[in-house]
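If your schedule permits, I should be very grateful for your opinion on a structural question. Please examine both parts with care and let me know of anything in them that strikes you as inconsistent. The record follows directly beneath this note:
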Amino acid sequence: MGDELADGPSVPRGSTTPGRVLAPGAAVAVSSARERAYEILRFLSVGGLAFIVDLGLFNLLRFGPGHLLEHKPVTAKVVSLVAATLVSWVGNRHWTFSRQRTDRQGRELIVFATVNIVCAGIPIVTLALSHYILGLANALADNVATVIGIGIGTVLRYAGYKRWVFTGHSVQPALRR
C-alpha cells in the first residue's frame, strides 16, 4: 500500500505528474478519451451560443418590443431555429469538427441541414405539445418545453454530426505559396 501512494496513479508519458508510465495502448486510450472530451466541450460551447441565439430570438419575437409573434409561438420557434442553425453550422464546421470536415462541403452542408431539420422538429414538437395540447400557454411553460426539446435534440445532433456529417480525416487547408 505504501508503494501505491509513493508511485501515485499511472499517468500518460510526458506528464509532469511523477509516477508510473502507462502502457502504449492505455496512453492511446487516455489520449483518445481526452480528445473526445475536448470535442464534446467545443460542441457544447457552439451549442451554448446557438442556444442563446435560439432562446433569445424566440423570446424577442414573442415577448419583446412590438410582440411581433406573440400569438404564433411555433413561427417564432422556426425563425429562431433557422438563425441558431446558421450559428451552429459555422461553429461546428470551423471549430468543433474542423479536423473531421470533409472536402465535400456541399454534401456536408446538405447532411448537416438534414440532421438539423430532423432535430429541430424536437423542440417544435415539445413546444406545440406543451402550448396547444397541455394548454400551458405562458412564457415559463413555453421556455421549459423549448429547453427540454433542445436538450434531446442536442444529444441527437452530436450523434448525427459524428455519424453522418463530419466524417473526414484531418482535412488540412492547402498551403499557400
